[in-house]
Amino acid sequence: MERWKDENGTEKGGYFAAATHSEDSPPVTDGVGAKMSSHGCLLACILAAALAGNNVSALMERSTERNCSINPPYLPVTVVDTTLRLTALRATMKPHSLAAYIIPSADAHLVGLCGTVVVTETKAVLWTDSRYWVQAERQMDCNWMLERDSSISTIAAWLLAEFPRGGKIGFDPFVFTPRRTWQMKVEEIRVEMAMNPYKPTALLLSALDETACKKPMELIGLFNLRGNDIPHNPFFYSYTLLTMQEIM
């Protein structure tokens, strides 16, 4: 038995059992040393497990986005359980022999300015741009797939790949707006200008400006243009001067 010593070699109170082992001597399997060694190992294992558990718990507490890759999946408190809603929608689709149902962002069940949902018999998919990726991961449960793209061509390609020719796809025509040309949008702005009590003769637009129209009319939306001047968004540096007769 030896006394405990600090880092300077000074003996302290209490004893511990020391055991040495060489190739010529059998390992210690009983006695005080073996008992203390097993107790120390058990204590170390308990401490390691507690620390690991605390780390996992802390990570889960800090996470605000879903994780469907683990079992059971991790879902933050902001997630909405859509199991019953999807079941009800699919039950409605079945009598009409619909292979898929499309829901645009104009539908009252969706939030945000950009998003398209496609629900099939076995899948539910949301297409949206980078503005809503984090929000989607915080609110969608694991019934949903997130496609980080919002282009019509991407959705159409997915539908063509997913269903055979002749498959029926449903949608509500009252929540779809017809595609407007930039000429149609310009005329709408000019009508708003003519009705404005201040009677403006010109309107200056930038890529991030909104007009006095009833709906936001950014420059990129006005001309249906996109750029990459600013990382991670479709805006570009530009200005437009719009009058009742000219566009500059």
Task: Please describe the topology of this protein.
Layout: E1 2-5, E2 11-16, H1 31-62, H2 83-93, E3 100-104, E4 116-120, E5 124-127, H3 133-139, E6 145-147, H4 152-162, E7 169-171, H5 182-195, E8 202-206, H6 219-222, E9 239-243
Parallel strand pairs: 3-7, 5-6
Antiparallel strand pairs: 1-2, 3-4, 4-5, 8-9
Describe the structure.
This protein has 248 residues and is an alpha/beta fold. It has helices spanning 31-62, 83-93, 133-139, 152-162, 182-195, 219-222; strands at 2-5, 11-16, 100-104, 116-120, 124-127, 145-147, 169-171, 202-206, 239-243. The strands form three sheets. Strands 6-5-4-3-7 form a five-stranded mixed sheet, with helices on one face. Strands 1-2 form a two-stranded antiparallel ribbon. A two-stranded antiparallel ribbon has the order 8-9. Strand 1 and strand 2 form a beta hairpin.
